[in-house]
Amino acid sequence: MASKSDSPQVAALMAALEKTFGRPVRTPFDFVLVADRIEDRTHEHISDSTVKRLFKPNLRYATVSDRTLNVIARYVGYPHFEAFCQQLARNGLKESEIATVQGGIRTEDLDVGDLVCIAWQPDRECTLRYLGNRRFEAIAAQNATLQPGDTFCCSSFLPGRPLYVDDFRHGQETFPQYAMGTVHGLTRVSLLPAKP
After folding, report:
1. In what helix (H) or strand (E) does residue 116 lie, and over which residues does it extend?
2. Dihedral of CA 103/91/70/16: which sign?
């Protein structure tokens, strides 16, 4: 048997492996050292090339063998991968919810021309004008990739949550998606008063 290498459970196990290892697993030296530490702790062998495939998306196989997952689960303190998954299901972080954030702005509640101010860490701030049909134009920006004249589409702005936008037009380039405040979310979301 095997599990899909891009499954959430495998991703969580790789995160647990990095936590046990004590740092991100990125370099050829890391791959060798992780394989050695796994063998030291579990007395079972996993090659450094297997570790490399687990942490390099472009080299990853579609599935990971149960044996590999079980050995890694033992390295991070579980008897086997199934036990890790059971614990994850019981105590894992909540990764979905109904978004009922106070202070958010929905584009369907805006009128064309309304101004929205958003900010995010460390020192980014932008003022946006609503153009209609979910599209916004930046009219002022500080310390951000987003610059005056750039446009994007989005449905809502939620304080404390990352802002993911579509059809981001930046200068002469267009990007399918762009994200702001990916770690700590938006620190400010406000509707500016209309100018007389």
Report:
1. strand 115-120
2. positive
User: CA gyration radius for the chain?
Assistant: 22
The one-character DSSP state at 34 is: H
Q: By the 8 A CB rule, do 79 and 24 touch? A: no
Cα–Cα distances in Å, from 92 out to 7, 16, 77, 88, 95? 15, 12, 16, 4, 9
Note the pLDDT tens digit of each residue in 54-109: 988 788 888 999 999 999 999 999 999 999 988 888 876 555 555 555 678 999 99
Q: Which residue has the tokens 């149960």?
A: 66
Q: Can you give 36-74 as a three-state secondary structure string?
A: HHHHHHHCCCCCHHHHHHHHCCCCCCCEEEHHHHHHHHH
- Euclidean distance between CA atoms 129 and 115, whole angstroms: 5
Please say whether the dihedral angle defined by the alpha carbons of residues 57, 58, 62 and 64, taken in this order, is positive or negative.
Answer: negative
In whole angstroms, give the CA distance from residue 43 to residue 62: 27
| Rounded-to-integer distance, Cα 169 and Cα 86, Å | 44
Rounded to an integer, what distance in angstroms lies between the CA atom of residue 105 and that of residue 96? 20
Specify the pTM: 0.55
The single-letter DSSP state of residue 93 is P
Task: Record the tokens describing residue 168, joined without a space.
Answer: 């981001």
Structural element, H or E, at residue 29: helix 28-42
Distance of alpha carbon 142 from alpha carbon 23, whole angstroms: 33
